[in-house]
Amino acid sequence: MLxxxxxxxxxxxxxAELLSEAPEIAVDLLSKNxxxxxxxxxxxxxxDSNLSLTAPLTSLADRVLVLRDDLDRPVFAxxxxxxxxxxxxxxxxxxxxxxxARAQYECAAGLLVIAPDNSVADWARSLRRVDGQHDxxxxxxxxxxxxxxxxxxxxxxxxxxxxxxxLLHAQDTGDVAFLTxxxxxxxxxxxxxxxxxxxxxxxxxxxxxxxRRRVEQEMGFLDGKVxxxxxxxxxxxxxxxxxxxxxxxxxxxxxxAEAILEVLAARALTPTPEQRARIxxxxxxxxxAAWLRRAITAATVDAIFTVDSDH
Length: 311
Hints:
Helix content: 40-55%
Structural class: alpha/beta
Strand content: 5-15%
Number of domains: 3
Largest sheet: 6 strands, mixed
Distance between the termini: 13 Å
Number of strands: 8
Radius of gyration: 21 Å
């Protein structure tokens, strides 16, 4: 069963992917959301995230960004970590990431932590002081630093930032209009449909059950109804996980069961004969809709049958 407190692996991966697609997000978080003075630069390079100076050392950050000037010289190195829960090992590893980035690129550096939970963000900030003696440039962004409001420019020009805001506030917002804005921004964006559909799936997977159902109802496919919009058909029917499953879920029970099995197969999750039989035998379209939704982000096949403990 996936934890509702900690973000599922897919959400962790999506945030890291967003930084690869739009590395300016990290710079904006520093300068606009945290008020950090970032060196002038002409481009941002996403580099190998292995900061090891010696092979045996485990120093793999989620992403590493290097800001370069007009002469292509590094001016600022920024390892980025997505932190879903407390991990005391990071007390020792994060300062090392910073020091190695600084040594490897021979420029100023810092470390950015994106924590989708405010309590985890508060904990991460407590690691800024090393051995109770001195601070180092550890920058932490949590939901409180990214308000659940999006202006027209952000929605139009920075859809990846909108996705990040959606992921950070999927659990704590009851504002369906906020999530609808993100959905519409993805629909209008230049992001490929399968990838934007995947992002939307993960945002909905992180949302509270009542909010998710309200959003689905607005899109017109609650309780087994097939969506009427092209976007809804692609999102609901394709069940795209990692951009590989094609097709559309029709209202028929048979089609919905096959869609669940296709999503699981695309994600390399193999049901047991008993689990497969259970999926194919069900004639409850509402239940199958829930299974299909969970199949997109579930860590195991068994998890699609499990109702979250707080619902």
